[in-house]
Every structure is written in C-alpha cells, then in structure tokens.
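Homework help board

Subject: predicted structure for assignment chain

Our instructor gave us this sequence and asked us to write out the predicted structure in token form, then describe one feature. I got the tokens but I'm not sure how to describe them. Can anyone check?
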Amino acid sequence: MKKVLITGANKSIGFETARQLLQKGYYIYLGSRDLKKGQQAVEKLKAEGLNEVEAVQIDVSDSESVKEARTEIGKKTDVLDALINNAGITGGMPQSALAASIDQFKNVFNTNLYGVIRVTQAFIDLLKKSPEPRIVNVSSSQGSLTQASDPTNKYYNHKGAVYQPSKSALNMYTIILAYELKDTPVKVNAVDPGFVKTDFNNHRGTGTVEEAGTRIVKYAMIDADGPTGKFFSEESNPETGEIPW
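My token output:
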C-alpha cells in the first residue's frame, strides 16, 4: 500500500485530496497543525469507511514540529511514496506592495516557501526509498509571472503583494528541486488547484474542493513517463494543464 503525507489536510482541499487518495487505496498521514482538528478529520474519513489514515501533528512553519513529525512517521514506515505540500496561508487581503510590512512577508513566506522546504528536506530520505516517489507542491496560477503581468488574464486585477511572490518563489524552488532530482525516480511538480470556494479565500472561489482534489491527486499518481519540473493549472489551461512560469 502506497503511503502519502499531506500537509494542511484537516480541512478544505487537503482534506478532499486525502479522501480521494484513500478511495484509490493509499495510506494517508493526514498532517495538521492542530492535532485535535487532524484527529477530527480522521474520524470523518473513517465514518465514510476510509480507514487507512492517521493524523500527524505538523506545523510547517516550525522546524521542531517538522522534525518531530519526521520522527513520528519514521517509527511507522521506512518509505513514503508521495508528499503533497498543501499547507499555505494568504496573509490576509488586501496586500499592497507599498504598505505590506516586512513581518507580513516573513509570516507568509515562512509557511508557503520555507514550510515546503522544511518538509521536503525532512522527508526526502523516505521518499527516495520509494520506487516511484512523487512530490506535489500546491501552488497557484497567481504565482505565474507571465499571467500576473498579462492584462488579458482574468485574474489580472487580483493582486496580492505578499501571497503572489510567495507562490512565485515556491515555483522556482520546484524547478530547482526537480532539476536536482532529475536523475532519480522522484518527480516534482507545482499544481494549482484552481480558484476554489473555501475559507482560504472567504468562500469567494468558483471551483469545488472535489475538482481541486482531483487535480492534485492526478499529479501525485503520475507514472514513470509522467512530467517533472512543470507547472500545471487545469483551470487556466483545460487542454494540457501546463501554464507558463
């Protein structure tokens, strides 16, 4: 049974991603900053008959928490088949390039970029023991420099001076990580789940968590011929999914 760690999986897109992977026969380590909320999420899944899941406390913004999660999961398995770096924050809106504080930038980057780095570095040893390891960094089309600078893009007027740079930086990390792992079986991609109606955006989104989960699961399950080092947004490009950085 393949095993997956999903960060920020106690609710919304992360929770739905866990549900869909459970339905496909994966074992899920459901990462949650608040362990109680993670356990409540596990109970919901088990009530649906999805039993191969357990909650793991992990705060991606805290190095010690990530180390403890690695120790805890390492007691249970020697192999991790997929890592879905889903945990993220917006930092609150609106965000002005002239008014946002440095502390605001640090807070968002600490989760959206440094958090991904912490978790990836902590679990890469377990991932490398899998025959087909996959890393999905949950990004956003808002992190595309090309799209953000295109006046014809439908989200052109949606500007977040803190959130968007954090996702652009995550995208570059994805490119470099994929490059460093190019001679290994590890495949790494950035995936935009779409503008989904969740509490993350005060329920202003237009897509569903089911659609978002399906998009993430797709790239967590790619085979040996699948892509690596790419940026996908099926909302932006329904034909091939790939969008420009």
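Reply (TA_rk): Your tokens look well-formed. For the description, you could write something like this. The chain has one domain: 3-233. That's the kind of observation they're looking for.
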